[in-house]
Structure formats: C-alpha cells, structure tokens
Amino acid sequence: MNKRVVVTGMGMITACGIGPEDNWSAMAAGISGIKEIQSFDASKYRGKCGGEARGFTPPAVEKLNKGRLDRASLMLIHTVHQAFVQADAVDAAQKEDILVSLGTTLGGMLMGQAFHKEAIQKGLSRARVSLVSDYLAHYQPVNIIREFGLRGDTVSFSNACASGTNAIGYGYRRIRNGEYGMAVCGGYDTMSEFTFAGFNALMAVSPTICRPFDKNRNGLVLGEGAGIVVLEELQHALDRRADILAEVAGYGESADAYHMTSPDPSGKQASNAMNNALRDAGCPEIDYINAHGTGTVLNDAMEAGAISRSFGNRTGTIPVSSIKPMTGHILGGAGAVEAIVSILAIRHKALPPNINYETRDHECDIKIVRESEGLNVKTVLSNSFGFGGTNASLILREYV
Amino acid sequence: MKRPVLSGMGVLSPFGPGMEPLWESLASGRSGIRRLSRFSSVSGALGSEITGIDVDDIIDDRSFRRAADVSKYALAAIQLALRDAGLDSVAGEDSAMVTAVTHGAMNYTQAYHRSLVTGGVEDISPILFSDSVLNAPAGNASICYGIQGAVHTIVGGTAASIKAAMMACRLIHEDGISRAVVVSAEEMNELSFHCRKKFGEPAMSEGAGVFLIEDGSVRTGKQVYCQIAGYASHIDAAPDVSFHKAVEKALSMAGIAKHDLDFALTDMPPGMRMQHLDGIPSDTVSRYTGNAFCVSSAWNIMLAASMIFKGALPASFIKRCEEKSKLNTIQNVIVCNLEETGAAAALVLSKKERV
Q: Of A235, B219, B280, B294, which sits with the fewest C-beta atoms within 10 Å of its C-beta?
C-alpha cells in the first residue's frame, strides 16, 4: 500500500528573493531578478545578464568549517534551515533516519573553478588543495547531514537541469514505499563563469532578455539559487501536528536518447515523463503547468509540443508559465525552485506570469500566463528537462 | 515483487577489456600498478592506467570519438556487458540506466578551464563544456544505446556504485521495466592525482565497470551470475556506525546472517573489517588496481558475481584467507564500502534465490 507524501517545509533562494514568500511577492508582481552580472566580468560574453542571488548573506555555520564551504553549501544550509523551521522539524529530524536527496549540475564549482585557475596560473604544486574540500557534488548533501546533526542516507543526483526534480521524485518514492518518514529534498547551483562561458559557447544564452515561448525568443539567462522541501509521510506529519503545505501526488521520468545538448524535437519522451507522472497521480485534472520554459528556440517548441501530446484538446485551456525570465535558469536547482513556486501557486490561488512574452509563436500553441492572475489552483504539473535528454515531471496538489 | 538478477558484465580495467583479464590477473596475483606515463606533472608516480587499448575499436558507434575518456570507457564497457548478457539491444523505454561517477570528465574540465583562463571565451570548444558535465557519460550512453527509461547519474565515492545498483533494483520494482544498466566510470587526471596524493591516497586507477540488473523472470533459461539479495546505504555521526548499519540492513534484507557470508569485498581498513565483518575472509580488487573510486566498487561487485558463478575465488585471494574451509563453494558475498565522507553502502549477492 503506497503511503501519501506531503510537503511540510520549504526553503528557497533565487535572484528574486530569499525565502518562499519573498520570492512569491516578487514573482506574483512579475518582478525579475535578472541584472548585469557582478560576480565576474561578463562584458566579453554574448549575454551579460543573469540571476545572481544578491540578497543572500551566508549564514552562521555551527558544526562545519565555513571557510572550507562553497557558496553552494552555504545556500543549501540556509535553505534547509528555512525549510526545517517552517516544518518545525529542526529537532524532529535528528531523532530518526532521514533521507537527504539533492540535485545539482556542478556541485561546488566556485571552489573548483578557483582551484583550476590556481593550478593553471601558479602551477599544480602551488594550487591550494583546500579549495577542493567542497568541490565534488556528493560533499554538499553530506555537509547538510553534518551541519544539522542528521543520520540516514544521502544521494546526489547530477542529471543536469532535471536534477532537482529527480531528487524530489526520488525522496517522494522512498517515503511512499515506507522506507523513510521524512526526507530533505531539492536542488541547487551557483553562478559560475565556468557555466556562463559554457552556455555562451553553446550559443544558448540570450544576448537580450529571456522570453520563453515567444516567437522572438533567443536564448536563456542563467541564474543561481537553491530550493529545498521537507517531505513527510502523511501520518508522520499528522503525528507531529505539522502544517501541511501540499501533497506530492505523482512523479514521472524518461530519457530522449537523442542528443547531448538538444531535445528531441518530437517531444515524445518529454511527454512520456508527463504521462508517467499523471498516471502515477491517478490522472488528475491539471490546473496549471509550471513549464521548464528556458527561452531557447528548441526547448520551448519541444515542450509546447510535448504538452500538446499529453493533453490533446485540453492543451489550450491549461495555463502555462515559466518563471525563468525572473529567476534565470538555476540548472540543478531549477526543478526544486519551480516545485516550490508550484506549491505557492496552489496556496496563494494565483499564477506567476511568464514575463517578457509578447508575440505568439504557432510552434508554441499553448495558453501562456501573460500576467499574474488569480485562479483556484488545486493541481500543478512541473516540468524539468536537461542536457543528455533527461526528462522529469512532478505533480503537486492541494492537501485535503 | 520482481527478483533482480545480475545478468551481464563489462569491464574496462588496466588489465584489458573484459572480466577474464581482471580475474586472471587477480588469480595470478599480478598487480596493474606501475609508474604512470600519461601526465608529465606526476610522471614517476604510481597508479594503474588504461594503456594499449583502443577504446574506440570496442564501441560500434563511431560518432562518440570526440567524447571524453570517461564517456568512452563507459560506452565500451556497456558494449562488453551487452555481449556478455547475449543482448542485441537495450534500446527503448523498457530499459533504464544508473551511472555512478566520482570526478567525471576531469581532463575536459581542466582543458576547458585552461582555454577560459589563457585564451578567453573565443577559445572554448563547446564539446569541452557539454562533455565535462557530470551526466555526460550517462547522456552519451543513453544516446548511443537508445535507453529511454529513467537515466540517472549519481555522484559519490566508493559507495556510489552500490547506490547505483540499489537504484537500479528499485527502478525495476517501481517503473516496471525489465532491466537497468548500471555504469561506473572514472578517468585519471593529474589534478585529482595531485589532490589525492596530498591527502595520502594510495595509487589511483581508472576505467569502467558495467553490469546489467534484470528482472529474473525475463532471464529464464539464460545466463544469470547471481541474485541481488540485499542492499542498504547509511550515513551516521560516526563512520563505523554508518558501516555497521549499512551491512546489517543489507543482510537483513537478504534474509541471511553474517556467518552465512562466504566472502567480503571491501576497501575498508583491516581493523574495521575485523570489527564489523567478524573475520569473514575479505579482499579487494583495488589492492591490484589502485583506487578507481566508484569504479573500484563496481569491479568488486562484478568480481563477487564471478566468484558466485564460478563457485571459487581467484587463487591469490585464497592464499590470503586463513579459514580456507569456507571457500570451497561460494554462495553469498557482500560488497561494502565506507566513503571518506562517512557514507557507507553494502550489497549482498547470492547464488540462491531469496525466499
């Protein structure tokens, strides 16, 4: 018998704000956090803007050596703390085995980048090995275990831009199967020149603004941040008298097996991921789709087609938006941040707008949310698609 | 409840392509560790590297020749595993893949940074970026072999391959697929070597280990190496507690007691082995190959499967065992490890079907 899985805590950092409600206030108003990059010289790149989380102040760290932590770990510690506080689970989480399931594309790349730079400029023997202390992607979930005095298990997914969704989906399944009563799940990535230069080299970055699904879209903008949810088995949450924010109703995944950096234009496997999630959730009516919506020509046409494949003649009636023009593309953190925004849409009974959308594209024949609007949102589908053809979809619904 | 079995194996090790060269080297006690030749900055240091093998010749699809070594090692080992299992294809939605990596395509990452620092953005080749992401081996493999079920990359140290096998078993149960390809791959890199040396690591290695986990019901009448009887992973405040709990949970799931184990394959220090494995005979591939991180555990898993399938140990392993009476027939083998992070994982492989 499958157990029900609910969300009891959320933590979030993006260019739009620190904390879920701070983010929601900005997003509901259509305020973008995209600005000219400050953390490195971006003047030489095709795109010069991004979503840096400038409001983020690294938190006090109790058990770890703060000097040895990458910005990624510091963001995670902050968001996990936010989520635990909301779930009133700071102490409860220490009393049982819990799962820490996180997704990232690049782990502690800022420290890694500094190490590579030193090795090139000063020579390998003079590069500080301390810089790699938080470089590898599996160190960050362990840092969460250590900092919060937890025990249980960790898993670090690196499935490119689907990582955060995969991490939540994995936690959902482990709780649903009765293996854990509680899990800390989500995703993260920082703004690094490594990533910025790479997406520029691929000509995937917009030289102007990100406008998903618009006929004149010309690329993505990168962002940074982290999104964390505390998942619990329903009875576990009720026994703790926790405030239940939403329910995770379904999860689906698939792979394109098509191209390393381009999605399969047929959208067949992206649609399969959605269909698997819908089937897993018992085929509910979907009130809103939080799209992957990167703003690249190929992704958005594929995603619109995949939505159409999955929803048939209902496609034109379901509102769709992407928050990436406001947050930037947070890569491994995108799916988790967008899952939280989906829950906020359910709780606030409103939809975040797909800002910068002006011109309809017949290849993206879906119902775009142009301005924030109120709606009795009960069930949301959130999509994530990544490099290498990884596809993942989550279904979140109002807890009743 | 589906019954996961290990049905095919592909090894790319410094001893050569295939499981037999690895087994024969272990049987004769031949080490692959020698002075490294590939990197001038660490020349003279000890390790075991893939040399004298044209990996491109093993991979049928020629379109991956520019991929990073770690991807090519993975692709070659998958090809060998498919041949071993007698499968023409794993294409389609009925197959999944779980890949374990520790460092990923570190040589491309290093080359990319060098381009960025010395030549600027105009100097960067896009493939250096796209093939340096951690899930590039998985992406390339899913494209090369047409795998359209779930495709995951999990990052970790020596426990990652065991966690990948665990995830594969769960996907077979939960997604209703017939099989999952479990891939572990690492490439040697001078930066990793330099860092590990400073931390006092022993010799490093590289290569790939791939095994197929299938629903036992679809392998009826075909070769099966062993059953996947139990698995667990755990992290706790103290490393020895992590290890103890992972081993106990895996044994509990397998429904066997510690004294039922015939052998353990682990990189754990002897003191901890004695404390938690009650003197069960133990050894590890990495004594002969050096540390290939997540791949070392994959090689240990495949060695365990071979031991069960052959009902014997490589000769050099027998010499090291004090209690030889237990080694006449090998029925149950545990592969277990504790990472430097304190995370532990254990996998129990058995000849007999779990009741």
A: A235
| Domain range list for chain A | 5-397
Query: What is the ipTM score, two decimals?
Result: 0.97
Residues B211 and B256 in one domain: no
B140 touches chain A (CB under 8 A): yes
Which of 136-155 (A) contact B at CB < 8 A?
136-139, 142, 145, 149, 151-155
Question: How is domain A5-397 classified at the CATH fold level?
Answer: Peroxisomal Thiolase; Chain A, domain 1 (3.40.47)
User: B309 and B263, same structural domain?
Assistant: yes
Residue A359: beta bridge partners?
Answer: none
- Tell which residue, B190, B220, B219, has the closest CA to residue B204: B190
Hey, are the CB atoms on B156 and A156 less than 8 Å from each other? yes
Q: Does the active-site annotation cover A78? A: no
Residue-wise pLDDT for B62-72, tens only, equals 999 999 999 99
Comparing CA positions, the residue from B70, B80, B106 lying closest to residue B9 is: B80
Say whether both B195 and B275 belong to one domain: no
Q: Tell me how far apart the alpha carbons of residues A254 and A278 are, in angstroms, rounded to a whole number.
A: 13
Q: Are residues B211 and B233 in the same domain?
A: no
| Alpha-carbon gap, residue A174 to B154, rounded angstroms | 16
pLDDT tens digits for A70-96?
A: 999 999 999 999 999 999 999 999 999
B314-343 residues touching A, CB cutoff 8 A: 339, 341-343
All residues of chain B having their beta carbon less than 8 Å from the beta carbon of residue A96 are none
Contact between B125 and B115 (Cβ < 8 Å): yes
Tell me whether residue B220 is in a domain.
no
* Whether B3 contacts chain A with CB within 8 A: no
Sequence-distant (6+) residues with CB within 8 A of A292 are A161, A299, A303, A322, A334, A338, A383, A384, A385
Domain boundary among B185, B215, B245: B215
Residues B245 and B134 in one domain: no
Q: Is residue B11 part of a domain?
A: yes
What CA–CA distance (Å, rounded) separates B282 from B269? 11
∠ CA(A251), CA(A270), CA(A141), 5° rounding? Answer: 50
In a domain, B164, yes or no: yes
Report pLDDT for B355: 41
Q: Which whole number is the average pLDDT over A204-217? A: 98
A161 catalytically annotated: yes
Choose the final residue of a domain: B215, B244, B266. B215
Q: Do A257 and B145 touch (CB under 8 A)?
A: yes
Show the domain range for B266. 228-350
- B116 and B178 in a single domain? The answer is yes
Distance of alpha carbon B174 from alpha carbon B184, whole angstroms: 22
Query: Which tens digits make up the pLDDT trace of A160-192?
Result: 999 999 999 999 999 999 999 999 999 999 999
Q: Which of A44, A142, A387 sits opposite B130 (nearest CB)?
A: A387
Interface touch B146/A166, C-beta < 8 Å: no
Q: Give the number of domains in chain B.
A: 2
Out of A120, A160, A388, whose CB is closest to B118?
A: A120
Q: Is the dihedral of CA A162, A163, A164, A167 positive or negative?
A: positive
Question: Chain B window 237-266: which residues touch A at a Cβ cutoff of 8 Å?
Answer: 237
Output the CA torsion B246→B199→A140→B73 (10° steps). -80
- Domain co-membership, B154 together with B257: no
Could A154 and B130 be called an inter-chain contact, meaning their C-beta atoms sit closer than 8 Å?
Answer: no
The predicted-structure confidence for B301-348, as pLDDT tens digits, reads as follows 999 999 999 999 998 888 766 665 566 689 999 999 999 899 999 999
